Sequence to fold (117 residues):
Amino acid sequence: RSDKIKLYQANLLDEMSSSTTNNCPASLLEPLKNANAIIICTGTTAFPTKAWTKSGNDDEGVTNDVLTALLDNSFSIPNAIASLDSQGLNTPNNIDAKANEFVVNAWNQACNVAQKR
Fold:
């Protein structure tokens, strides 16, 4: 029923980078405190595109970041991706793995009702 469903949007990379504790951030507290379940829709492209930028801004691009990471890591793709992860780019690891874990942890801390899994 649509009257019982509320949608929320959050910039999880900003939330994760500004969080100084393991507590649920204030911006996620309201959506998570009475949530019996959560659905997280995340994702990014598998190949570096503007979607990987921190802002999604077309002018920012990631070409230089990707080439630098490849050169600095002797063209080791896993190491280059790890370097891009550490820069906070919207890589699959940062968007999918870390952001999902962040939301689930926040939900576990904030939820006041029975969780359905």
User: Anything to note?
Assistant: The chain has a mean pLDDT of 82. The chain has five helices and no strands.
